[in-house]
Design goal:
Blueprint (H helix, E strand, L loop, with lengths): L7 E6 L3 H11 L5 E7 L2 H11 L3 E4 L8 H11 L4 E6 L4 H10 L3 E4 L4 H12 L4 E2 L1 H22 L7 H11 L4 H8 L3 H15 L4 H10 L7
Parallel strand pairs: 1-2, 1-3, 3-4, 4-5, 5-6
């Protein structure tokens, strides 16, 4: 067989059979792929990677016996030529960071379609990284959170939205969340969200800290 016609060998790793079967069904009909094997957990994936030498492992994260993070780390250490693409339900930042640190070249959510899965496989095989949209959003949110923290440490002003300023002014005036909601014609849940954002942006630990911030930064000059 000509090298250009060589199929991409895949190892599918997931502890749920319906998911494994679904991935296999999506990819086995594509002439560019060969399903080299399937594994039920990370330990089995590590053993099969050594025997089958797939081009890429499509790896779930949360599994019994050995999770996808540990398995990815061992596979990448022992067989650095084998690429790993995380395919999972969770977009929790901790899992994303741990999989990247372990050596995964991409992170894809299971709500992705066939076209995106194939694109991700090809990108990772080419030595590039691939992250689905929701994963990118999680990474950007973390970057912005760190930037806000760094700005705060550097003494730079923290931008508050107009609505956040409205809420903060009423907090200073000792209005309850229910009273703030009624006054601003918003839900109590929305007030709670604004309060959380204010605590995060200002670095305050409680209401007293918010009041202190408002006074020091002239957010409520008429309070």
């Amino acid at each position: 067989m000509d090298s250009q016609d060589k199929k991409i060998k895949l190892l599918i790793v997931d502890d749920h059979q319906i998911v494994r079967d679904g991935i296999v069904a999506l990819l086995q009909s594509d002439e560019h792929f060969q399903i080299a094997g399937v594994a039920f957990n990370g330990k089995m994936a590590l053993e099969m990677a050594g025997k089958l030498h797939p081009d890429i492992v499509i790896m779930d994260v949360s599994m019994p016996v050995m999770d996808g993070i540990a398995s990815t780390r061992f596979i990448r250490q022992q067989y650095p030529e084998i690429k790993v693409l995380a395919l999972t339900m969770t977009n929790e930042l901790e899992h994303i960071k741990n999989m990247i640190d372990a050596g995964a070249g991409g992170y894809l959510l299971k709500n992705s379609g066939k076209d995106e899965l194939i694109m991700a496989i090809n990108e990772v095989l080419a030595g590039r990284e691939y992250f689905s949209g929701e994963v990118k959003d999680a990474i950007v949110r973390e970057m912005m959170k760190k930037k806000s923290t760094n700005d705060r440490l550097a003494g730079e002003p923290i931008p508050l939205t107009h609505r956040e300023k409205d809420v903060l002014q009423l907090i200073v005036k000792e209005f309850t969340n229910h009273e703030i909601a009624e006054k601003l014609f918003i839900s109590v849940r929305t007030v709670d969200a604004h309060r959380r954002n204010l605590l995060e942006k200002t670095g305050a630990r409680n209401t007293a800290g918010l009041v202190k911030y408002a006074i020091e930064n002239s957010v409520c000059p008429n309070c």
